Write a sequence for this structure.
């Protein structure tokens, strides 16, 4: 199985801050990397697919980059509604695997 | 607007079989463009892909669960189902159904709200 490692596991940031979350794959997954946002008590929501493509309706302050084994999710200017956990997922090969999640708190 | 809704018992006895159904509305479950999958999340933990089914009935399962899991499709009811046998407390989780593309980057673009299944006597 391909292991996905996210960092940090949690972080606290202020409104307006630039936030970066990283995700590493245990082997190359090309650009088969997706990012999901999960608000407390809710289902995950697709933010970014194919490493850097913004899902329809997602605010432009979210962006993704990377390929191979190293990927990042960036929030350019943190908003209060961004309080959530963020999960990366590789869809290169089955079993599709997720990172352990990053819990984002607002200071 | 596509909607997915999970249904099934919220409490299952240890060693028995967990059965859940996902009802799809607002779109066709028979499309060759998509797989229909199950993903779970134990309380306070990360997400785990369980498996997916194609409109033809082709299935893909997580090897860690393969001996216990079965996913099937009923196109006449626009539903797909999960069966997980010989459950233990470790199978306690929120279970989500989701759609992901069969080509492209296979991202999960639509999810159900999730249903909590507790394994306990």
């Amino acid at each position: 199985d391909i292991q996905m490692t996210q960092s940090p596991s949690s972080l606290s940031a202020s409104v307006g801050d630039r936030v970066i979350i990283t995700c590493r794959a245990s082997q190359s997954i090309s650009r088969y990397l997706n990012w999901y946002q999960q608000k407390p008590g809710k289902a995950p929501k697709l933010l970014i697919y194919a490493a850097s493509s913004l899902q329809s309706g997602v605010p432009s302050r979210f962006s993704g980059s990377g390929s191979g084994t190293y990927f990042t999710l960036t929030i350019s200017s943190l908003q209060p509604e961004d309080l959530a956990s963020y999960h990366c997922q590789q869809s290169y090969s089955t079993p599709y695997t997720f990172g352990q999640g990053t819990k984002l708190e607002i200071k | 607007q596509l909607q997915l809704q999970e249904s099934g018992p919220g409490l299952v006895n240890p060693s028995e079989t967990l059965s859940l159904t996902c009802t799809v509305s607002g779109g066709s479950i028979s499309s060759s463009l998509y797989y229909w999958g199950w993903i779970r999340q134990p309380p306070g933990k990360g997400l785990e892909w369980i498996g997916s089914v194609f409109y033809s009935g082709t299935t893909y399962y997580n090897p860690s669960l393969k001996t216990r899991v079965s996913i099937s499709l009923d196109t006449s009811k626009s539903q797909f189902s999960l069966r997980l046998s010989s459950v233990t407390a470790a199978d306690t989780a929120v279970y989500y159904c989701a759609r992901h593309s069969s080509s492209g980057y296979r991202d999960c673009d639509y999810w159900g709200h999730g249903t909590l299944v507790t394994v306990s006597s």
Q: What stands out?
A: The mean pLDDT of chain A is 97.
